[in-house]
Amino acid sequence: MVLPILTYPNDFLRNPTEPVAFPLSKEMQKLTKDMIDTVRKADGIGLAAPQVGKSVKLIIVNLEKSDVPLMALYNPKIIEKSFSKSEIEEGCLSIPGVFGMVKRPKKVTVQAQNAQGKVIKFEDNGWIARVAQHEIDHINGRLIIDVIKKYTQGEEIVKQWKKEKTL
Ligand SMILES: [Zn+2]
Q1: Residue 45, class by beta-carbon neighbours within 10 Å (0-12 exposed, 13-18 middle, 19+ buried)?
Q2: Structural domain contains residue 123
Q3: Which of 77, 63, 53 is nearest to 135 (CA)?
Q4: How far does the centroid of ligand 1 lie from the alpha carbon of residue 115, in Å?
Q5: What is the 23 CA–ligand 1 centroid distance (Å)?
Q6: Ligand 1 being an ion, which residues bring their Cβ within 5 A of it?
Q7: Is residue 5 part of a domain?
Q8: How high is the pLDDT of residue 163?
């Protein structure tokens, strides 16, 4: 089932998230399946649970179009990151129309649990690393508008939001 995606400035996107418990509840299994349907339908490369209104530590990395098997990662975190950074243009399904350059560590080691609760670790220095960092930011309430250094599209929208917040 495709879920509606919350968009900024919905404050829910800033909420703290709860860890996922194992074995997975029926509800979590359903959420996983629905988030996979949702990210595919939206043609997104990643999705985090807060974006569909659930405050839990679950992210989907969808690089199927680059021949990477889809990943559902529970309780993911970055446990190691490189000193060297790369700057890439990012957008976000929750912030339509806004794009900008985001600098992040180039190489990271991600630790997470799979659907069986098994702890997995992997290292990446390409798109998986980039998407994982963006989605892990989501489960920590952090959005690209907090980290974009230079906007490539939609800067006036963000300026307006920032202005409204200070009024
Ligand atoms: Zn996003």
Answers
A1: buried
A2: yes
A3: 77
A4: 22
A5: 27
A6: 92
A7: no
A8: 87
Has residue 158 been placed in a domain?
Answer: yes
Check: pTM over 0.85? Answer yes or no.
yes
Secondary structure element (H or E) that encloses residue 28, with its range: helix 26-41
Name the one residue in this structure whose structure tokens are 């509606």: 4
C-alpha to C-alpha distance for 135 and 86, rounded to whole angstroms: 17
In a domain, 149, yes or no: yes
Instruction: Determine the pLDDT at residue 165.
Output: 76
Contact 103, 144 (CB under 8 A): no
pLDDT score recorded for residue 10: 93
Distance 25 CA to ligand 1 centre (A): 25
CATH number at residue 106: 3.90.45.10
Task: Residue 128: give the domain boundaries.
Answer: 11-166
18 catalytic residue (yes or no): no
Question: For the chain, how many structural domains are there in total?
Answer: 1
- Mean pLDDT, each 10-residue run in order, the chain (167 residues): 96 96 98 98 97 98 95 98 98 97 98 98 97 98 96 95 76
> Among candidates 137, 148, 151, which has minimal Cα distance to 102?
148
Q: For 13-45, write each residue's pLDDT tens digit.
A: 999 999 999 999 999 999 999 999 999 999 999
Partners of residue 100 on adjacent β-strands: 90, 151
